[in-house]
Structures are given as structure tokens and as C-alpha cells.
Design a protein that fits this description.
single chain, 445 residues, alpha+beta, D-Maltodextrin-Binding Protein, domain 2, 2 domains, seven-stranded mixed β-sheet, three-stranded antiparallel β-sheet, 16 strands, 41% helix, disordered N terminus, maltose binding, transport, SBP, signal, ABC transporter substrate-binding protein
């Protein structure tokens, strides 16, 4: 009982974890029911995830699986993100958890430590060559693999073609340097792309930052798209092992630059707005009011469906250490208490294969983790006139690990408000980072 309470307390912090590696949001709960083994002459394996768009692809995938394995049926359950992590520990405690379920890198550690997961290395194998390498490494703990990588995302730069052409900005060659020093091109470019309702740019006489009609770049307390990448590009770390380690001179330089984009240079939306609405920058981009939007492929559906202007994808902004992107992935985990272990392992092996992930790729739902299935995802977006290769290139260069650890969500919950205050400019960067790191690490003890 104590272990279950600890799990529940940790997962209560989930809103701060990496949610972005998901092709769309779930607005309703859909469960297909749990059939007892033998009720239809076949063993039923349950698969749980939080995304309805991906669920459609998985149902297609599992139909193909069942055609080869008629003795196994896979039922897909969709539980919306807002309920997913509250329900997970309750179902583990009650024994009603699905046989296989989605999780992200910041949430598998506690489950692995508490013996709730099947050892994927033993059950499926450790063939990292089959997957985008960094996606599998995220789910290693204590020398063992605990998840089958399913989908992934990295970071690149969406840009409004008309706005950058009018400003004479090349989005493919933007760089930043601490303090806007030698080699920095982002600040000047973002100023050209920012203007108030009178058409004046930051630094010009009469510019009014309170009446900006167009913004240059998105800088905010966004771990995945912004600040963890900036840390890597500054030569800093987000974590050392399971502990937070961003309060270093390099980390201070990275965060100070980002905060200055908001409060000093006035090229990014106000933190008073982005702290309340994490999707504001994406919405501004879609509305044609933000010229440069650093984000991941998880933003592709919304931009593709709603932007009525020409846009493209360039490499992410480069820092002192070059381009360094976080690569995050969602994995399928096996329930250690499954009553259908043999069938569950067969399904996990299917999910680890090209055939198992083709439906995800063909539908454009997300980048599949299996390398050989990625051409189909590229083809889906190519038909829509979108080149997604910059996201793939980001995985081939320098990367920084996504958050991991048994209690990392509790740690991020402890410091998130401090970082928001820092982006508001109400707390100095050095003071905020010291407090954030101390509070975060103390919360994980």
C-alpha cells in the first residue's frame, strides 16, 4: 500500500512532464472493454494510451497483428491526458492496469524501480539498431531496457516565409551567444521581425512593447521546445544522473539570454501570457503574428490545418555548442502483473517492429521510433508539401537527454513556478536557478 501511495503522489505532478510527444489531444475517454481470456476463443491483450489520433493508427496496426495471430485480440483504451496519470497508479494498485501502456521518459522510472514493469530487454530484446538510438536509451535504467520506443520528436524552427523574406532574415542560419555577444544573429533578426501597431521595431524611437502586433521568436518557460535545448547548446546539463544540475555559469547564461528575449529585447511574447497559455506561441504563429516558432513535430497537425500562409521548417537556432536538441520519445511498457504474459510479449514484439509501427507512420500521426518505418512518415508530409527532414537531422547531431528519474516530476513541480517568475522578470536569473535547483532536488529526496 505504501508503494502505491508513493506512486500516486509522484504521478500527481505529471502536468509538468513531457507531453508534447503526442500527435494530438484527447477530448474524451474511450475504452473498448476488457474481455476475459477465452470469451471469444482468443486471448485479449489491452493497450492503453492517451491520444485518440494515435489510437486510430494502433487499431489498424493491431488488426494486421491479429491477422497473423488469430488467437490474440488487442483492445485499445484511450484515457485523456488529464486523467491518464491519475488513473494509472490506481489501476496498478487495483490490478486493473492494461497489459501494455504508453508512458514518457519522465514517468517510467518509478514504475521500473517498484517492479511494475516487464523487462523489455529480456522479453523483446535490446536491438537498439532497429530504433532511433536516443529513443531507446531514454528507457534504460539500472542497465535494463523497460520500454519499447514508439514515437519520438526533436526540435526545429518553423518560420513564416513571407515575414522572414520581407525582413531579409535567413531562418536557416540563426545563432545565439550569451549576452548577445560575438556570433549572435538571433537578436537582430528577431528585432527585424518584431513590430508594434505603429510598425516600429524594438530599439527604434517610439517603439511600444505593450502594443506589439507581431513577434519575432518564442521564448518562454517551455522545457522541451526552448530551455532544455538552450542548456545543451550552452554546454550545460539539465540533469546529472537523477539530480538537477542546471545551476552552473553556462546554465545561467542560457536562461539569462532567454529571459532577456522577453523582457529586455521585447522580441518574444510576455511571460504573463505564455505562463498562462503554453500554446500561445503556436497560436500566434498560426495567426501570422509570430515569425519564428521553435517547436517539435507535435505542432505539425495544428500548423498544417490552420495556417493560411506559406511556412517552412529550418534547423533550430544554434548556440555556442552548435545545435543541440532534446529527443523525447513515448514508449510502450509491459505490465509486470499481466495475466496474459505470453500474448503480451508477442504484442510488444510486434510494436517493436517496422510492421507494427507502419500505421503510425502512414497516417502521419508521429515519427515512428523504428528507423525503417520513417520513410512512410516523411512521405505523408511530403504529399502535403512539408519537408520534415530537419527533425530527423536533429536526432543525428548533438542531443540532450529528456528528463528522467523516479521522482523527476515531483522535482519539476517544485521548481516550475520559480522558472515562470524568472521569465516574468520578477526574480533575477541567478537567484531563481539556485532556488529552482535546490527545491527540485530536495523534492526528489
Amino acid at each position: 500500500m505504501r508503494t502505491s501511495k508513493v506512486i500516486a503522489a509522484s504521478f500527481a505532478a505529471l502536468a509538468l512532464g513531457l507531453a508534447a510527444c503526442s500527435p494530438g489531444s484527447s477530448s474524451s475517454k474511450e475504452t473498448t472493454g476488457r474481455e476475459k481470456e477465452g470469451s471469444t476463443g482468443a486471448t485479449t491483450v489491452t493497450f492503453r494510451l492517451w491520444d485518440e489520433n494515435a489510437a486510430k493508427a494502433y487499431k489498424e496496426s493491431f488488426d494486421a497483428f491479429t491477422s497473423h495471430n488469430p488467437d490474440i485480440k488487442v483492445n485499445v483504451e484511450v484515457i485523456p491526458w488529464g486523467q491518464y496519470w491519475e488513473q494509472l497508479p490506481l489501476d496498478i494498485q487495483s490490478g486493473d492496469m492494461a497489459d501494455i501502456f504508453w508512458t514518457n521518459s519522465s514517468n517510467f522510472g518509478l514504475l521500473a524501480d517498484n517492479g511494475n514493469l516487464l523487462n523489455i530487454g529480456e522479453a523483446v530484446g535490446n536491438d537498439h539498431d532497429a530504433w532511433v538510438e536516443s529513443t531507446a536509451k531514454l528507457y534504460e535504467r539500472d542497465g535494463k531496457l523497460w520500454g519499447v520506443p514508439q514515437i519520438w520528436d526533436s526540435i526545429a524552427l518553423f518560420y513564416n516565409k513571407k515575414l522572414v523574406e520581407e525582413a531579409g532574415v535567413d531562418p536557416a542560419n540563426l545563432t545565439w551567444a550569451p549576452g548577445g555577444g560575438e556570433g549572435d544573429t538571433l537578436i537582430a533578426a528577431a528585432k527585424k521581425l518584431t513590430k508594434d501597431d505603429a510598425g516600429k521595431h524594438p530599439g527604434e524611437d517610439g517603439f511600444n512593447p505593450d502594443k506589439r502586433a507581431q513577434f519575432g521568436f518564442n521564448s518562454q518557460a517551455d522545457l522541451q521546445a526552448i530551455y532544455i535545448d538552450w542548456l545543451g547548446q550552452a554546454g550545460a546539463k539539465f540533469q546529472d544522473g537523477d539530480n538537477f544540475a542546471f545551476n552552473t555559469p553556462q546554465g545561467v547564461g542560457a536562461f539569462q539570454y532567454l529571459v532577456d528575449l522577453v523582457n529586455k529585447e521585447h522580441v518574444a511574447p510576455s511571460a504573463a501570457d505564455t505562463n498562462q497559455n503554453g500554446d500561445l506561441a503556436r497560436d500566434l504563429f498560426v495567426q501570422g503574428k509570430l515569425a519564428l516558432f521553435q517547436s517539435g513535430p507535435y505542432s505539425l497537425p495544428q500548423i498544417s490545418e490552420n495556417a493560411d500562409f506559406e511556412w517552412g521548417i529550418a534547423p533550430m537556432v544554434a548556440g555556442p555548442e552548435g545545435r543541440v536538441s532534446v529527443v523525447h520519445s513515448v514508449a510502450a511498457l509491459g505490465n509486470a502483473e499481466t495475466k496474459n504474459k505470453e500474448a503480451t510479449i508477442k504484442v510488444l514484439k510486434w510494436l517493436a517492429s517496422k510492421d507494427g509501427q507502419l500505421a503510425l507512420a502512414d497516417s502521419g500521426a508521429a515519427f515512428p521510433a523504428v528507423v525503417d518505418a520513417q520513410a512512410e512518415y516523411e512521405a505523408f508530409w511530403k504529399e502535403k508539401g512539408v519537408d520534415v527532414s530537419e527533425f530527423q537531422k536533429a536526432t543525428e547531431g548533438k542531443t540532450i537527454p529528456a528528463p528522467v528519474g523516479a521522482k523527476v516530476n515531483a522535482g519539476m513541480m517544485a521548481f516550475n513556478d520559480t522558472l515562470k517568475e524568472m521569465f516574468l522578470g520578477s526574480v533575477p536569473v541567478e537567484e531563481a536557478l539556485k532556488k529552482a535547483q535546490d527545491d527540485g532536488n530536495n523534492a526528489m529526496k
